[in-house]
Automatic annotation (TrEMBL):
<dbReference type="InterPro" id="IPR013780">
    <property type="entry name" value="Glyco_hydro_b"/>
</dbReference>
<keyword id="KW-0325">Glycoprotein</keyword>
<dbReference type="InterPro" id="IPR035373">
    <property type="entry name" value="Melibiase/NAGA_C"/>
</dbReference>
<keyword id="KW-0732">Signal</keyword>
<dbReference type="GO" id="GO:0008456">
    <property type="term" value="F:alpha-N-acetylgalactosaminidase activity"/>
</dbReference>
<protein>
    <recommendedName>
        <fullName>Alpha-galactosidase</fullName>
        <ecNumber>3.2.1.-</ecNumber>
    </recommendedName>
</protein>
<keyword id="KW-0458">Lysosome</keyword>
<dbReference type="InterPro" id="IPR002241">
    <property type="entry name" value="Glyco_hydro_27"/>
</dbReference>
<keyword id="KW-1015">Disulfide bond</keyword>
<comment type="similarity">
    <text>Belongs to the glycosyl hydrolase 27 family.</text>
</comment>
<comment type="function">
    <text>Removes terminal alpha-N-acetylgalactosamine residues from glycolipids and glycopeptides. Required for the breakdown of glycolipids.</text>
</comment>
<dbReference type="GO" id="GO:0019377">
    <property type="term" value="P:glycolipid catabolic process"/>
</dbReference>
<dbReference type="InterPro" id="IPR000111">
    <property type="entry name" value="Glyco_hydro_27/36_CS"/>
</dbReference>
<dbReference type="GO" id="GO:0005764">
    <property type="term" value="C:lysosome"/>
</dbReference>
<keyword id="KW-0443">Lipid metabolism</keyword>
<dbReference type="GO" id="GO:0016020">
    <property type="term" value="C:membrane"/>
</dbReference>
<feature type="signal peptide">
    <location>
        <begin position="1"/>
        <end position="21"/>
    </location>
</feature>
Amino acid sequence: MEAVALSGLALALALALPSVALENGLARTPPMGWMSWERFRCNVDCQADPHNCISEQLFFEMADRLAEDGWRELGYEYINMDDCWSAKQRDAAGQLVPDPKRFPSGIKALADYVHARGLKLGIYGDLGVFTCGGYPGTTLENVKQDAQTFAAWGVDMLKLDGCYSSAEEQAKGYPEMARALNATGRPIVYSCSWPAYQGGLPPKVNYTILAEICNLWRNYDDIQDSWESVLSIVDWFFTNQDVLQPAAGPGHWNDPDMLIIGNFGLSFEQSRSQMALWTVMAAPLLMSTDLRTISPSAKEILQNRLMIQINQDPLGIQGRRIVKEKSHIEVFLRPLSRAASALVFFSRRTDMPFRYTTSLAKLHFPEDAVYEVQDVYVGKIVGALRTADNFSVVINPSGVVMWYLRPMALPVQPWHVARQQAPGEGFHPALL
Ligand code: GLA
């Protein structure tokens, strides 16, 4: 039974999926870790604010937290420097160098520190004359040299931003950096901001090409520390899901930007919603918060094991919004391996907890199946549910209920493998 299902999957994959991924073998599941930008920005005033400025101290301390507070074991392994780490000028050899006051030990020493704790180091560059924060950029002439510098330092991930360059320069430079990184021989996950600078949509953005070049890419605006910002990102990604959803898969992911859970802008319910919706999107889980002072409740959301298991599902199928009710309830579905699924019931209401009634049949699950349902946040098994059964969930304002559904009995009829579907075909849980 298992063998038949597996060979069916292999065949379906071979037939349906062109091999388009960047073949560096990296990021087979969405990258997880920590990134400095949203929380710590370009604070370079180490005199006035020594504990929060962009300095090696900040990264040493966050690396300690990742290694000691249970994050690393859950998969949060990247510690990513964003903008404002470098000196304002390249050195005499034209090489990028870190700010000597704020990074006196140098980036190689930082990478060694991070590696010694079983973590990986990410760095930030910008294809253009300057970075967005006004630090030296990587123009086309610098691409090779900078790739070699990053590799020599022992860097494991590069975010290449796109401020201060033209569309033509980006079309040349992003693929060139992919080649330059590969040529170093060091495995370096490559995150491209290219689509975000070209509006994120075809015809200006070609997601097939992008997946051949980059492991992940920013499609849209920067996240800010507010619910409004999270909602605008969610709206854009799901409004454009017919374009974006098929672009994602093992080795190549859409990136709706960092998790802001643990900061100042989200309520408890909204924090749970960001985590659930990012997981449905198969998004990278890059936290940008102060891990030294994070609250237990924010930590619990970010360290939810079942959530992370769903986010990291090996099939790497991005989920979709499948229902948008007039009542301002929305339902999202992500197909998972072993014919499992994740469902997110999301309330945009602003009045009170809402009782939403539906059935798996209405959500296009296969007829005559039975599922074991587990509530991802409560942790408990809710019970067994047949496709035809009506059920209700109570969803708090701006909150979610999230379910993990494992098949207990499946129909005899073969089920279509839901993978990369044309718009309008509907979207079904997969029997894989
Ligand atoms: C851009 C990027 C952000 C961040 C800043 C740094 O705005 O989109 O994620 O890297 O630049 O200046």
